[in-house]
Specification:
The complex is a heterodimer.
Chain A: H1 6-9, E1 17-27, E2 30-40, E3 43-48, H2 55-63, E4 70-75, E5 78-82, E6 87-88, E7 96-99, H3 111-116, H4 124-137, H5 153-165, E8 171-175, H6 183-200, E9 203-208, H7 211-217, E10 220-225, E11 228-233, H8 235-238, H9 247-250, E12 255-265, E13 270-275, E14 280-285, E15 294-299, E16 305-307, E17 318-330, E18 333-340, E19 343-350, H10 351-356, E20 364-369, E21 375-378
Parallel strand pairs in A: 3-9, 3-10, 7-8, 8-9
Antiparallel strand pairs in A: 1-2, 1-4, 4-5, 5-6, 10-11, 12-13, 12-15, 13-14, 15-21, 16-20, 17-18, 17-20, 18-19
Chain B: H1 3-33, H2 39-51, H3 54-65, H4 70-79, H5 87-111, H6 115-123, H7 128-139, H8 141-156, H9 160-166, H10 176-185, H11 189-214
Helix pairs in contact in B: 1-5, 1-8, 2-5, 3-5, 3-9, 5-8, 5-9, 6-7, 8-11, 10-11
The chains are: A alpha+beta, B mainly alpha.
Chain lengths: 379, 224
């Protein structure tokens, strides 16, 4: 039995990717039915799920490298696969860029030749110009004459990305493209990718099983489990794992307070928590909580800043006036105990900072707390 | 040393191994990528000359080339003479005889190319044929050289099929191995010795090329 979903009948945006796929697939846990139905507008759509959830099978079906049993894949209104109309455009004619988990760079070609590989139909002058541009954008010009085996993991990742981007695909499929990279490299590549997509505006399906990447990319996330879409929406609404810390994780924190949730700002991914009896209000990251629910907030003493004048033009969202109650020196670290409306914060300073700010008991100070320095734990 | 037989043999081996690249590559491509369920029958057929006695193979080739067969008649109407006992006939017989020595290394090296690279090539807009030309062939260099060298060496030393199909016509179908046989028959051991040594060296050189090439295959580093 086939059901017609409203998604099929609605008009598509020019570049929108519409996917409706049914396919049996195998993983280590046995045989599953991939049953996915979603639309991806220009921009990032994250496919999140444990390994074996069917994410790669889904990408393969969109790319045309694997055939669904039933369904429809269309981009900008043009059907690439349609089981009802017996339409199945060959992978090499789909113009969909795909960066594989294992990259699959051509080992016999240099980085530059790898990147230019998909441009055989373009004239030599344009091919050279486009290849040069993308090598520059992704900052891999210096490895252009080297083969994949001779460059670093991050550079290989960039070559694979460049190779897919340079063909100006109508959609981009990224299968855990950054899984093997360290965090700074990862965020630099993501920034470059975002920059590229601001110009090109194509749908990007981004597969990951890292919660961190989901939050870093923002946008829309689709959660897959055993072949089914469990939920989809914005990361903060969707992600099951609340970012509450465990007791153990908070145990090393110098500052741990009882707090009450005062307001939720879902659009910004933050919330306001009232700390202590007289109510210092702190902006904290959003977790699954309701107004009025009670939590504990942990802040490391080393994450706090002190100012002797009211600071302005700060990115930190919390600036709380207070008074120094006591200073204790332990080896080269000074602990300042600051009273903010009845709540006492411990702040770690260097000896030089104490001298420069002429800190002493009873001095008036401003405490600066970054939103993401506030760690939350259920009571 | 019979130089006429020597150059004839070299010419035969060169033509046969060159033609086998042209014929063997498509056959090997089909063997490497076809999903036909009866493919194993074709593979067996291609491999048959390895195990078949050369006289049996030569006998059937002779029948196929003779003026009673469609091929023989077609050739006769075209050229006015029969295929049997000619250099052309010898080439056809040798092609069949050496086919597996070209096709098997070709197919093995095509099959060894990482399928992920073929998927990547397709996602970059390259047709299967272009992918074969730009990815599979360059990555199969050692297999191609191996197939060429093995079929060259194998043709160089064939005896049974040549005798059955070509006879022993000086300057037309008399190859080195037959020349050696003739010299031994005539008790000219020193001549046979020299010719045999040349054949030995040539075969050794061809195999050295094969093993030398395969010593360092196209390796991809870990993490690729």
């Amino acid at each position: 039995m086939k059901t017609v979903s409203p998604i099929d009948s609605a008009a598509s945006a020019p570049s929108e990717l519409v996917v409706r796929i049914r396919k049996r697939f195998l993983n280590s846990g046995g045989s599953f039915i991939l049953n996915a139905h979603f639309r991806a507008p220009a921009g990032f759509t994250i496919l999140f799920g444990a390994s074996g959830a069917g994410k790669t099978t889904l990408l393969d079906c969109v790319a045309g490298l694997s055939d669904p049993e039933e369904g429809r894949v269309a981009i900008g209104g043009e059907a690439l696969y349609d089981s009802d109309r017996k339409r199945n455009v060959a992978a090499w004619q789909r113009r969909i860029g795909y960066v594989f988990q294992n990259l699959a760079l051509f080992p016999h070609l240099t980085a530059e030749e790898n990147v230019a590989y998909g441009l055989h139909a373009t004239g030599p002058a344009e091919r050279q110009a486009r290849t040069g541009d993308i090598l520059q954008t992704l900052r891999i010009e210096h490895v252009r004459d080297r083969q994949p085996a001779q460059i670093s993991g991050g550079e290989r990742q960039r070559v694979a990305l460049a190779r897919a981007l340079v063909t100006e695909p109508r959609a981009l499929l990224l299968d855990e493209p950054l899984a093997a990279l360290d965090r700074p490299t990862k965020s630099r590549i993501l920034a470059d990718l975002r920059q590229w997509n601001q110009k090109h505006r194509v749908p990007i399906l981004y597969v990951t099983h890292s919660t961190e990447e989901v939050f870093a990319l923002g946008d829309e996330v689709i959660v897959l489990d055993a072949g089914r879409i469990v939920t989809q929406g914005r990361p903060h609404d969707v992600m099951r794992a609340p970012r509450l810390e465990t007791v153990a994780q908070l145990s090393g924190f110098e500052n741990v307070f009882d707090a009450t949730v005062a307001a939720l700002h879902e659009d910004r991914g933050t919330m306001a928590c009232r700390v202590g009896a007289d109510g210092v209000e702190l902006e904290t990251p959003l977790v699954r909580a309701e107004v009025g629910s009670r939590l504990r907030v942990g802040i490391r003493a080393g994450d706090l800043l002190l100012a002797t004048e009211s600071p302005r033009g700060l990115s930190a969202r919390n600036v709380v006036p207070g008074t120094i109650r006591a200073l204790q020196q332990r080896d080269v670290i000074v602990s300042a105990f600051v009273d903010c409306g009845g709540t006492e914060f411990e702040v770690h300073l260097t000896l030089a900072a104490r001298e420069a700010l002429e800190l002493a008991p009873e001095k008036k100070v401003w405490l600066v707390v970054k939103t993401h320095s506030c760690h939350l734990m259920s009571e | 040393m019979n130089w006429e037989a020597f150059w004839l043999t070299i010419r035969l081996a060169a033509i046969v191994s060159a033609l086998l690249v042209v014929i063997g590559v498509p056959v090997a491509y089909w063997i490497a990528y076809s999903r036909w369920r009866w493919k194993f029958l074709i593979e067996s057929l291609v491999a048959l000359p390895i195990v078949l006695p050369p006289t049996v193979l030569g006998f059937y080739v002779l029948l196929a080339l003779g003026s009673r067969s469609p091929l023989g008649r077609w050739w006769e109407s075209l050229t006015g003479h029969t295929l049997a006992f000619t250099f052309e006939g010898l080439v056809i017989g040798s092609l069949i005889y050496s086919l597996p020595f070209a096709v098997q290394p070709f197919a093995a090296s095509f099959g060894a190319v990482d399928p992920k690279l073929l998927r990547a090539s397709a996602s970059l807009g390259q047709s299967p044929l272009r992918t074969f030309w730009r990815v599979v062939l360059p990555l199969s260099k050692s297999g191609l050289v191996t197939g060429f060298a093995l079929s060259f060496a194998h043709t160089l030393g064939e005896f049974g099929v040549v005798l059955m199909v070509g006879g022993n016509i000086p300057g037309v179908t008399r190859t080195i191995s037959i020349d050696i046989y003739d010299q031994v028959q005539a008790a000219q051991y020193s001549g046979a010795n020299l010719t045999a040594a040349v054949l030995l060296l040539l075969s050794f050189a061809a195999l050295s090329i094969v093993y030398g090439i395969n010593r360092r295959p196209w390796a991809v580093g870990p993490g690729q």
